[in-house]
UniProtKB/TrEMBL annotation:
Taxonomy of the source species: Eukaryota, Viridiplantae, Streptophyta, Embryophyta, Tracheophyta
PANTHER family: OS01G0962200 PROTEIN
Record protein name field: Ceramidase
The organism's place on the tree of life at top rank: Eukaryota
Spans traversing the lipid bilayer: 7-27, 47-69, 81-103, 130-148
Keyword terms, alphabetized: Membrane, Transmembrane, Transmembrane helix
Entry keyword Secreted: no
UniProt keyword Zinc present: no
Length: 252
């Protein structure tokens, strides 16, 4: 297990370096800060883009409490507690960093919205580190969840989390069109925040529901078995039982 972990980290680092070498630099566009919804309510500029970060704070704090409340998540592997603690601290920190940025969007505040990855990108004046960390997990995590045998049950929640994250990125890209389609009710960036908050929500639900998977069967194998059972059930023909009785014929 330890060797496999080291190999995985080695592959990740090498892949990151290769992508940084073979891909062109991506500078941060000033137009990025020009969000569709810039309305002010209750004296708060960009109100909806600011307050839509509140779910991150709620989920992050709940996750931290459950991590340490009588081991509610039943974390058993070495390093699991530390790992999930860092995760929920990061989720809660998103609420502060993103809200601070959206109060007055500019390059200087964007660093706090994208910590810690943006620090590296800021140093090189390049968005490639941010883009790699944003999009590679969307591909790698679903593949790992489907192909690798899990230690715990409810691994399908990883797929739900990845799906909502992809939707969030689409909404971010369609910020102004969504704002137009909704007749200026809500922008794509606000919906992006709410969809992205569904990622830690699904992972928290996974931690609550999961148990040790004794079979350790990958999702791909599980789906194949379910499909075969479904096909077998539908292919079974109906059996009918017929009884024949002798009828006496009376001559008239």
């Amino acid at each position: 297990m330890r060797k496999r972990t080291l190999y995985a980290w080695g592959v990740a680092v090498v892949s990151f370096v290769v992508l940084m070498i073979v891909t062109p630099a991506i500078p941060q566009s000033e137009a990025y800060h020009d969000f569709a919804d810039q309305r002010e309510f209750f004296g708060i500029p960009n109100f909806l883009n600011v307050v839509s970060n509140f779910p991150f704070l709620v989920v992050g704090l709940i996750g931290l409490v459950l991590c340490y409340y009588g081991n509610y998540f039943k974390l058993s592997l070495q390093g699991e507690l530390l790992g999930w603690t860092c995760f929920f601290v990061g989720v809660a920190a998103v609420a502060f960093g993103s809200s601070y940025y959206h109060l007055k969007p500019d390059d200087a505040r964007l660093v706090w919205d994208r910590l810690p990855v943006s620090l590296l990108g800021r140093f090189f004046d390049d968005l490639r580190p941010y883009a790699i960390v944003q999009f590679v997990p969307c591909i790698a995590i679903p593949i790992m969840a489907v192909l690798l045998p899990p230690m715990y049950t409810h691994s399908t929640y990883w797929l739900w989390a990845a799906g909502f994250y992809i939707i969030a990125k689409i909404e971010e890209a369609a910020d102004k069109p969504i704002y137009t389609w909704t007749h200026h009710a809500v922008s794509g960036h606000t919906l992006k925040h709410l969809c992205a908050a569904m990622v830690p929500i699904f992972l928290t639900l996974m931690l609550v529901k999961r148990t040790i998977d004794l079979e350790r069967q990958s999702l791909l194998v599980t789906w194949k078995v379910s499909w075969q059972q479904y096909k077998g059930k539908n292919s079974e023909g109906e059996t009918c039982e017929y009884k024949y009785t002798a009828v006496s014929v009376v001559d008239s």
